[in-house]
Structure formats: structure tokens, C-alpha cells
Predict the 3D structure of the following.
Amino acid sequence: MYISERLANVNESATLAMSQKSRELQAKGHDVINLSIGQPDFNTPDHIKEAAKKAIDENFSKYTPVPGLPVLREAICTKFKRDNQLDFNPSQIVVSNGAKQSIANIILSLVGPGDEVIIPAPYWVSYIEIVNLAQAGNVVVEAGIDQDFKITPEQLEAAITPKTKVFLFSSPSNPTGSLYTRDELRALADVFVKNPHVVIVSDEIYELITFDGKHESIAQFEELRDRVVIVNGVSKGYAMTGWRIGYIAAPQWIADACNKLQGQYTSGACSISQMASAEALTGTQEPSEMMKETFLRRRDLVVKMAREIEGMKVNVPQGAFYLFPEVDSYFGKSFDGYDIKDANDLAMYLLETAFVATVSGEAFGSPKCLRFSYATSDEQLVEALKRIKTALDKLK
Ligand code: PMP
Ligand code: GLU
């Protein structure tokens, strides 16, 4: 008995695996600081919880339409108009069980064996594995810390082939926090104008957590409007990771394809979560603003502390809640039986000796780096960075 070849080619999610390891150490009584999984540490705002309670009392307990309740799809259109000055018809919106499912829907709908998906590295772990699940080819375009982890139009142009079907990226980015400016997106858009066979998937899940500059969507360029799919959701901006609501705004034929796939796979997302999400998108945005301010303060704190650690190269993330320092200066060093050959060894060394959980950059396509999520309290961050510094200073 054995699993399918399709699944055998998919790796386990490194973010979820590291988080599980840290829970296991915690269960054994260790005081672990978990900077591995990326999720806001805030509770869902009260007005959103109230909307969910009301939905339960009003018996929103039946199957919803596969692509989502009309009230939510309209709320999503209102959000796109208000925040992004983009017009969508509710029929172009598909609501799913988290943005992760939205991305899986798009990729499984659009690509298969023989097709190529271009993914800039560093990338979010699941992009590559979802493409593997679709049995298509990943074409990775690398952008290091010296280019603020953003690819250039020349790199993009060189990666496109007749087999390219999709370009998949996030801005603000997980794992780097880098944000493409309007001009940078314009330059990438010019390359896509010359390559009309490529669909652009723009993952904007961290839109509300943008500190410096303004979040811009590549969908704003009129020439690309008929082939950009925006992915977004309520997980990060509204502290609703467990409610599992993500959505896309897509050209009609892609929305229809995702709808068909989802109809055979999971049906519509949870009815109560959908009503809560409609409130999140149309109700007061103040709690999200406050969370953003807190993330900004923590960003400044972790950047300052990380820069005091000799051997770490740190950029300043402009959004999301991750720090992605380059740590290869520690490779080849040792302490107490730990030989650090790569970022995987370093993440394990920090977990087992300093009890701080991070994620190796390898899973994000950047083996010289480590990812820290700073979505936790200031006290925990100060303590974690202290422990990391002490552990790294011991490596000789
Ligand atoms: N895209 C990116 C870049 C993410 O970091 C995440 C967070 N896991 C997702 C998509 C998926 O989010 P969701 O919780 O809505 O599935
Ligand atoms: N996006 C989060 C992260 O990168 C959640 C974990 C996951 O879904 O992989 O840590």
C-alpha cells in the first residue's frame, strides 16, 4: 500500500511542522517562545464576534452557495472599491476556507503537468507545494537581501517561457515583509504586457499590515485587469486565522473554474465565519489599525535588537510581521555537539538550546536565512532576542 505519486512529491508545511515541534517541547515542560508560526496574537475584535453570535442565533446553519453568501461577496466588492479603487462584480468573487484554499483552487484550476509557475524567492512555503500537488513545474526566481528580496523586471523576463502559465507572489511578502512600490509593480506589469499568456496571482493577505509606503495592487494596471487574480482574506488583518475565510477576485472564467473545483471538494466555507467576515470587511476598521500600530512598534523593536547581534544581516520589513535575517555567517561553526551546517541546523540549535522556535529559510527558498514571526508580545520578543543572541554568541 502506498500514497499517490502526486502527494509523495509534496513536502509537509515547514511552518506548521516547526510550530508542532515547539508545542511538543512545551508539553514536556520547556518554556518555549514560538516565533515560528505566523499569526496575529490578538483576539478577534468584539464587533466581529458579535456578528458571528447573531448569525448563530439567526440560524445561518445551512450550506451556503459554493462561492459564498451574497452578503459577503458584496461586502468584498465594497472593500475592493473602498480600499483599492477596483470594480468587481460579486460573480467574480469566490470565498474559500482560508486564502490557502483560494491559492490551491487557482493553481489546481489553471496548471497541470508540463506547465510552469514562476515564483519569486523568498516565497511562502505553501506556494511551491501546491504547485507540486498540481504536478506542474516551479520556476524559482531568486531575490536576495541586497535587492530587498524583490525581483527585477529583467529577472522576470528571463524566467518567462512559452510554458509559463502563472506568476505567483505576495506583497507585503511572507517571509520577508518586503513591499513592492507602485513603480516596481509598473515595471513588472510592462513585462507581463509583452507576455499575454501569463496569469498573475497577487497574494495580498498582508494588505492591512503595511507600515512604510502604501500597499499597491498589480491589478490597478488596466492592461492586466483581465488576467490578475487577487487573493486576500481576513486571517491576518482582522486576527481571524482560525475562522478560515479567504477569497479571490478574478476574471470570470477563473472564478467559475474555482467555483467548480470547490463545489466538488469542500463546498461553501463555514456560514458563521462568512457572516463574521462580512462584518470585518464593512464594520469599523479601527481594531485593524491598532493591531498594525502594535506590529509596527514590534518591528522597530526586533530590527533594533537583531541588528545588535553580530553576524546577522537584517533588512527593514515594510509590512507583514516577519523578520528574515541572513544568518549564513554562522554556518560552519559549532557549540556543545551542535555543528551548524545550514539554516535547518541553526533553527534546531535555537529551538533545543535557547527554546526559541523559528523557521529555516530553506522552506522559503532562501537557505541563508531564518524567519522570525514577531506577532507576539514585546516581553516575549525581548526575551527571545536575548536568548538568540546568547546562543549565537556561543558558536565558534
Ligand atoms: N498567503 C500568505 C502569504 C500567508 O502568509 C498565509 C498565511 N498562512 C496565507 C496565504 C494563508 O492564509 P489563510 O490563513 O487565510 O489560509
Ligand atoms: N502563514 C502562516 C505562516 O507562514 C501560517 C502557517 C501556514 O499556514 O503555513 O506561518
Residues 13, 15-16, 37-39, 100, 125-126, 174 surround glutamic acid (ligand 2) (CB under 6 Å). The mean pLDDT is 97. The longest strand covers residues 164-170. The chain has two domains: 5-43+287-393, 62-282.
